[in-house]
Amino acid sequence: MSGQVEAIDSGDLVVTGRDEDGAVLLRAESALKQPMTIWNQTSHSTSGHGTSALRSILPDRSFPYPKSLYAVEDVLRFCVAKKPNAVVLDFFAGSGTTAHAVMRLNKQDGGRRQCILVTNNEVSAEEQVRLRSE
């Protein structure tokens, strides 16, 4: 889009590469810039990098609609990239994607961010019986 081309030309957006579909991967040069409305990178797909990634880590667990680790990481990067001691609160935690993304950011930049996960631990009736019997 013309607005993005202008932002690339001005240096507000930096081209970091291309994804497997050929789409340009961009990074905002300033943490003060507002993220784009739509991120169409394959790494942000919930099916390819949400469900599949989680299934490879926890094959016997079912999490409906897990978010992509990379999408959450990019969202957090916009918010806390310049806050290495931030505390991130995920009040609707499920599979722990937000905590995983916070840990990845810390590893990348040496930050000491913390993540607090809150969940209501809803489980199916079958799962509840199985968990109580173990």
Radius of gyration: 18 Å
Number of strands: 4
| Strand percentage | 5-15%
Structural shape? elongated
Helix content: 40-55%
Per DSSP, the total helix count is 5
Parts with pLDDT < 50 across at least 5 consecutive residues = none
Order of helices and strands: HEEHHEHEH
Report mean pLDDT, rounded to a whole number. 78
Strand order of the largest sheet: 1-2
Alpha-beta content class: alpha+beta
The main sheet comes to: 2 strands, antiparallel
Distance between the termini: 56 Å
Description of the structure:
- This protein is an alpha+beta fold and 134 residues long.
- The chain has five helices and four strands; from the N terminus they run αββααβαβα.
- The strands form two sheets. It has a two-stranded antiparallel sheet.
- Strand 3, helix 4 (97-109) and strand 4 form a beta-alpha-beta unit.
What secondary-structure arrangement, pairings included, does this model have?
Elements (H helix, E strand, L loop, with lengths): L1 H9 L2 E6 L5 E5 L17 H12 L11 H12 L6 E4 L6 H13 L4 E4 L7 H9 L1
Short description:
A hairpin with a 5-residue loop joins strand 1 and strand 2. This protein is of the alpha+beta class.
Primary descriptors:
two-stranded parallel ribbon, two-stranded antiparallel sheet, alpha+beta, single chain, 14% strand, 134 residues, 5 helices
